[in-house]
Amino acid sequence: MANSCHQEYENLSNPSTLLRDEPFLNRPVSLQDVADTLWTTFGAVHGSSRTDLSQLGMRSVGYRRTSPSGGSMQPSEPFLVALNVSGLSPGVYHYRSIRHELSYVGDAPSDDTVCRLLCGQTVAKELAYGVFVTSRFDKLWWKYPHSRAYRVALMDVGCLAQTFQLVSTALGIQSWATGYFIDTDVVMPPEIHR
Q1: 8 A C-beta contact, residue 148 and residue 137
Q2: In degrees, to the nearest 5, what angle opens at C-alpha 15 toward C-alphas 168 and 41?
Q3: Angle 131-136-140 from CA coordinates, rounded to 5°
Q4: Which of 62, 87, 88, 84 is nearest to 73 (CA)?
Q5: Is the pLDDT of residue 6 over 70?
Q6: Is a pLDDT exceeding 70 seen at residue 103?
Q7: CA distance 55 to 42
Q8: Rounded-to-integer distance, Cα 126 and Cα 90, Å
Q9: How far apart (Å, rounded) are the C-alpha atoms in residues 112 and 132?
């Protein structure tokens, strides 16, 4: 079994299978593939609450995803920018992890606007969808009321980005992670997190 797992990892992490440096192909991605990617990366795959800690007499906080999160706080919130997803109207959506559902936030930006928001990274032109991840420091500061919250947020996003890349590659979806964007133009309103 270990050899099978090792081989599968080798296949997924092989640079020739990662399509992030090629232009996107301007073809639709199915809503099911998007849903699978969001669920596997950001979903509450172990249920909506933790029961393992309460069985040990400890206070249960949060829920679990496939990637680790400092203190089980899950501060990363994904926003789907659907541009060419079959079965879903173009738009910006908040992915609600625990309920595995999308909430409409607003209209989809144009290809040119996406490239501008991503500081001229034209590799994003004609992408089918993008996921922007925000960090909820209100959650983190509840447990980490000091600068350590920033470290936890960065580790959280890094783990989720890697999971997203691996899941996308396994599904044959072109993916590409970037932290290079215009923050002030990509900020999501805080009321969306409620």
Answers
A1: no
A2: 25
A3: 135
A4: 62
A5: no
A6: yes
A7: 25
A8: 13
A9: 17
Instruction: Report the amino acid identity of residue 78.
Output: P
Evaluate whether 8 touches 130 at the Cβ level (below 8 Å): no
Rounded Cα gap, residues 130 and 15, in angstroms: 21
Assigned token pair, 151:
């470290």
Mean pLDDT for the stretch of residues 69-74: 66
Closest by Cα among 81, 70, 82, 43 to 164: 43
Q: Say if residues 114 and 130 touch (Cβ distance below 8 Å).
A: yes
Q: Which token pair is 157? A: 């996003």
Closest CA to 192 of 109, 120, 100, 92: 92
Sign of CA dihedral 35, 39, 40, 41: positive
| Placement of tokens 């829920």 in the chain | 63
Burial of 192 (0-12, 13-18, 19+ CB in 10 A): middle
Kindly state the average pLDDT of the residues 156-163: 84
What Å distances lie between residue 34 and 4, 149, 191, CA to CA? Answer: 26, 30, 24
* Residue 9 pLDDT exceeds 60: no
Contact 154, 54 (CB under 8 A): no
> Is this model's pTM higher than 0.70 or not?
yes
